[in-house]
Amino acid sequence: MSHQPTGIALYDTAADEAAAAVIAAYSTSFGMATRLLGSRARTHVRNIYALVRVADEIVDGPAIEAGLDATQAAALLDALQEETMAAIDRRFSSNLVVHAFARTARECVIGADLIDPFFASMRTDLTVAAHDDASHDSYVYGSAEVVGLMCLQVFVNAGQPSPSGPSPELVDGARRLGAAFQDVNFLRDLDHDEATLGRDYLGIATGDHDREAILDRIDADLAAAAAVIPQLPADCRRAVIAAHDLFAELSRRLRADPAPAVRVRVPDIVKAGLIARALVGASPRRTGA
């Protein structure tokens, strides 16, 4: 006879479900990919994504639309970071998304070395409009590479009796995959970032960088990440291959259309094909293929 959870177990379940609702609302592609994860890691990755998304929304459109200025948004971001770190220590938060993330952080050994750079990059969005090479790299590390490293901590530690560190090869692959994802999204959102948010992440508007060179860097990062995916635990590989291939397809479409009239996306039927390839254990697609 099954028993419904009560007390803290019920609260934990509600927190996990709240995080899952965030990812379902914000990202169909990433949501599809996470469904390919084994149950050991799936909930934890959703918990990471939910906190990342809430922080991102503080510094982007929704907070602005609600009438917050940069000072108010910064205060909210500071409070979210403080609550996140406190929840990891005390094992409880009244914020369901934070509570879910804190549970994941404790089990999978996600600490301040990854959390602090993430919030630092989010804070940058409130103060920096145009990035040079150094600030771009720092921003991408905190906003995307550390998220890949958080997921890698889940892949190697979730459900394990004792934590362990990932290999240097996997660390490099996680960072480069995260960087590729972020740069692809910068290219997809180039017009919106410049016209609506007043931001230039890539230096294209100023003529400091060439679009094709950025796509070459993206494809090199995707290829490097693909090379180490076979080293991941078996129950995580299909999801990572699906995510990799979705962004490889976006890169291909961005290269094929230098001046898209609308935001570049992967049609649902193509997404389904990429998911199907991952499901049957196909190798990651070659970049540009």
UniProtKB/TrEMBL annotation:
Protein name: Squalene/phytoene synthase family protein
A Pfam family hit: SQS_PSY
Species of the source: Microbacterium schleiferi
Gene3D superfamilies: Farnesyl Diphosphate Synthase
